[in-house]
Design a protein that fits this description.
Blueprint lengths: L1 H12 L9 E2 L28 E6 L3 H9 L9 E2 L2 E7 L6 H11 L10 E7 L3 H5 L22 H6 L16 E7 H8 L4 H7 L3 H14 L14 H5 L17 H16 L10 H5 L9 E5 H11 L19 E4 L5 E2 L3 E5 L6 H12 L2 H11 L6 H9 L12 H9 L2 E2 L7 H16 L5 H15 L6
Parallel strand pairs: 2-4, 2-5
Antiparallel strand pairs: 1-11, 3-4, 5-10, 6-7, 6-8, 6-9
Helix pairs in contact: 14-15, 17-18
């Protein structure tokens, strides 16, 4: 019976949508967290089953790297925590493959052998509430975690992982506010300064950003472009919408902000303000090199760690530290036209885990311990989900070498306080991936705008057959 309930829960989540993403909460909307729920006092504590294998589902190596380096009880040589073996199960996130594999495993959770049960699974912001809106993810307060432990987290990270009854079902060690990361040397040549406050004045809203793009083109004789490609500004727009991707009655819909992004990108393509590259491709990354000809990129902190530092051409030592070189250090960050959030990895405890005590300790160590989170940020330039740790990082003047000695926390902290994530939905990932793919033909002049949007709808309906056009 339990297996049927799990399968039903998975199918039901695909017809439940709240909204599209996270953005600046300029209206002052109050965030809903577990602290505001009258029902949280009824959450029962989850008994530990004494499991001997800790199974963790992930889509890349990010959490594994954080876990191996910063969880103090892990023995990397043996791959164990005490007498418990740690097993990472990794599947690619592209095309929704990770979710498909995770769904299959969660559906089989009740009947799985003890050593095969999922204990922890990771979720991205784009689909976290597909799982946290069901009982597939255990209540955080059912573990050995208190409201006090959660008190230093940014509200929007809790909001994104809270179900409709106010029950928090996932936690994150990171916040992912984004900004506009630009080349210092190009800024000096074109605008006469590389100071983040002064460059912010040049890009403070979209009209100013457009004017700056024209100046970049003109002053560089067309050799440098404001952005790299088609997809660069999408997350800024998609995180500042006024309606969801999917209506309450299950129909696809496009927010005016998304149409503004389409129009802006067409203008930038036709005007020579971008280089017609696609997100994550080699030619997109090429603009980050020392001889790259891209002025800036919209990025969160993880974009530095996973893309820009390597893309800069900097080499690493044996310990994995960047040695400089290339364009490393020739970058700075400002807020840009709008505050936005991009991504974020959440840790869920799978319902049915037989290692609840261990899962609790991992969450408390990596997501609640200010000293561990301070070290994560200081070592990796990740923006951590702990206000107290971030305050100390700023007070201690911990800076980013990649950003030429700029404080990452100071650059991103103001945006983090403005973001709301009440609008995340189970449909975000493929709506966005399909949109990027469908619109390229329009930007390249192969189809008109209406045809490209129709193609997006068709692809998305294939990704989510339960939806209506």
């Amino acid at each position: 019976m339990r297996k049927k309930v799990l399968a039903l829960a998975l199918s039901l989540t695909m017809v439940v949508g709240t909204m599209v993403g996270c953005g600046s909460d300029d209206a002052g909307t109050t965030n809903t967290t577990t602290e505001e729920s009258g029902g949280t006092s009824q959450i029962e504590k989850i008994a530990d089953g004494g499991g001997k294998v800790l199974n963790i589902y992930v889509w890349n190596t990010e959490f594994k790297e954080r876990f191996e380096k910063y969880y103090p009880k892990y023995d990397k040589e043996k791959g164990t925590i005490g007498d418990v073996k740690v097993n990472f199960i990794q599947n690619t996130n592209e095309g929704g493959v990770y979710q498909q594999k995770l769904d299959e495993a969660l559906t089989a959770q009740e009947s799985a052998a003890a050593d095969d049960k999922i204990d922890i699974f990771l979720c991205e912001m784009d689909y976290v509430n597909k799982y946290t809106n069901t009982t597939l993810a255990a209540p955080i307060l059912g573990l050995d975690i208190s409201e006090s432990d959660l008190s230093q987290m940014y509200d929007y990270t809790k909001e994104a992982a809270t179900d409709g009854s106010g029950v928090l079902r996932a936690v994150s060690w990171q916040g992912c506010p984004g900004g506009f990361i630009y080349r210092r040397s190009y800024a000096k040549d074109i605008f006469g300064t590389d100071d983040p406050d002064k460059i912010q004045e040049q890009v403070k809203d979209w009209a100013s950003f457009d004017a700056a793009a024209e100046k970049v083109k003109t002053e560089s004789d067309g050799k440098i472009t404001m952005l790299s490609g088609y997809d660069d500004a999408l997350r800024v727009y998609s995180n500042n919408v006024s309606q969801k991707w999917v209506s309450d009655d299950g129909k696809l819909q496009m927010d005016p902000a998304i149409e503004s992004w389409i129009d802006m990108t067409k203008k930038y393509t036709d005007s020579g303000y971008n280089q017609k590259t696609s997100l994550w491709k080699d030619d997109w990354t090429a603009g980050m090199r020392k001889d790259g000809n891209v002025f800036g990129y919209f990025m969160p902190a993880w974009g530095i760690n996973f893309n820009m530092a390597d893309g800069s051409g900097s080499k690493k030592d044996k310990a994995g530290h960047y040695l400089g070189g290339g364009s490393y250090g020739d970058w700075a960050m400002c807020t840009g036209p709008q505050s936005f959030n991009w991504g974020g990895s959440f840790i869920c405890a799978a319902t049915g885990t037989d290692n609840s005590a261990l899962v609790s300790d991992i969450m408390k160590s990596l997501c609640c311990d200010k000293d561990i989170m301070y070290k994560i940020s200081a070592d990796t330039s990740d923006f951590v989900n702990n206000k107290e740790a971030n305050k100390k990082l700023e007070e201690d003047n911990v800076t980013s070498e990649f950003l030429g000695g700029q404080s990452l926390v100071k650059a991103l902290g103001a945006a983090a306080d403005k973001i709301t994530c009440k609008y995340v939905s189970p449909y975000d990932q493929m709506c966005i991936e399909n949109l990027m793919a469908a619109m390229k033909d329009y930007y390249d002049g192969k189809v008109d705008k209406d045809t490209a949007i129709a193609n997006w709808k068709s692809a998305t309906l294939k990704s989510y057959p339960d939806l209506k056009e």
